[in-house]
Amino acid sequence: MKPPVFASWLLVALAGERLAEVIAGDLEEEFALRDPRGASGWYLSQVLRSSIPLLSIRTPQTALVALLAVAMPVLLLDRLWSFIYSQIPLKDGLNRAPEFLIVNLILVCLCAALSRSKPWATFGAAALALWVSAGHAPLLYSILVLTLAPASVWRSR
Amino acid sequence: MKWVFRIVGGLVAVLILGAVTLLIMGHRANANHIHSVAELPGTPAEIWPWINDADKIGKWISWVVEVRNPSTYSVGAKRVVVMKDENNGGQTMEIAGTFSEYQPPSSMTVQLSSAGAFDGTQAYRLTDLGNRRTRLEIDFDFHFTSALARLMEPLITPQAEKKMVSDLDRLKSLVGQKAAL
């Protein structure tokens, strides 16, 4: 008898592969001893009950890495573009030149790949950076950042 | 620890390479200079108010908040253009101009200065092309006050040039609308 697939997947998603393996080992020992009729429900309830503690263990570190590695470089680059535009003798608005947006996109993907953070944390950090940036984010650019940054993490893992 | 040194070393190398590239690019022939040309419908006398009058300047130069014109126009007269800087938290910035040449309706040169930002010279030339067409040429030479802005000049000037082209496109469309009426 095997534990429910959804509960196993949820455990990996919440705890990460290494920690999930350890927790699943303990859960499966007790799962095997239980009445088969209620074992799946019990297993799922155990995973759900552990979800908040597991997220609280993992989120700070993962989110911090994503914030430092993805959001911060993009925001620093945004400050640089703001400085450049503010130095234009007759001033200009918040629309950024395509070449600047391409540099942003390359940097965010590179930083995301190097951080080896979680895709969801990278997505969140990239979304935060887009939201906080002073420069306008055109729709296509936003879509590319929000899809390519987490994809870069997938490829590097 | 070895990786930390490698990452920090890599970042420093990238920054040095970027700074050296910018320094080299800063010595190109057209550094600190913008030249823009537009052919406009109308005679030079009809175009002149668009580069001279306070109420018209703000219509085609974006981010102008206010223009304080001198009471009498002549060499030495002063004009202040107040601009909104969206990239600096929406702060307003004053650009003081002194006319060093004033020959309506064919040319004017203004010595510009903005405290802590730049000093420069902006020259406007209007050439009658006949058939109610006028060529407007704007030459803008500037010098940044801060060392960081001077380093970033190769990135700033192309954006300033793009801004001037879009302003001139707006002027062209406004003058065209006026001529059509």
Give the secondary structure arrangement, pairings included:
The complex is a heterodimer of chains A (157) and B (181).
Chain A: H1 5-15, H2 17-33, H3 36-86, H4 98-115, H5 119-132, H6 139-156
Helix pairs in contact in A: 1-2, 1-3, 2-3, 3-4, 3-5, 4-6, 5-6
Chain B: H1 2-25, E1 33-41, H2 44-52, H3 54-60, E2 64-68, E3 78-85, E4 91-103, E5 107-114, E6 118-130, E7 133-144, H4 147-151, H5 153-180
Antiparallel strand pairs in B: 1-7, 2-3, 3-4, 4-5, 5-6, 6-7
Helix pairs in contact in B: 2-3
Essential attributes:
heterodimer, A: 157 residues, 6 helices, B: 181 residues, alpha+beta, Alpha-D-Glucose-1,6-Bisphosphate, Chain A, domain 4, seven-stranded antiparallel β-sheet, 7 strands, elongated
Short description, anyone?
By secondary structure, chain A is an all-alpha fold. Chain A has helices spanning 5-15, 17-33, 36-86, 98-115, 119-132, 139-156.
Characterise this structure.
The complex is a heterodimer of chains A (157) and B (181). With 157 residues, chain A is mostly helical. Helices cover 82% and strands 0% of the residues of chain A. Chain A is rod-shaped. Chain A starts with a helix and ends with a helix. Helix content of chain B is 40%, strand content 38%. The N and C termini of chain B lie far apart (73 Å). Chain B has a single domain, classed as START domain (Alpha-D-Glucose-1,6-Bisphosphate, Chain A, domain 4, 2-Layer Sandwich), CATH 3.30.530. Chain B is an alpha+beta fold and 181 residues long. Chains A and B meet through helix 3 of A and strand 3, strand 7 and helix 5 of B.
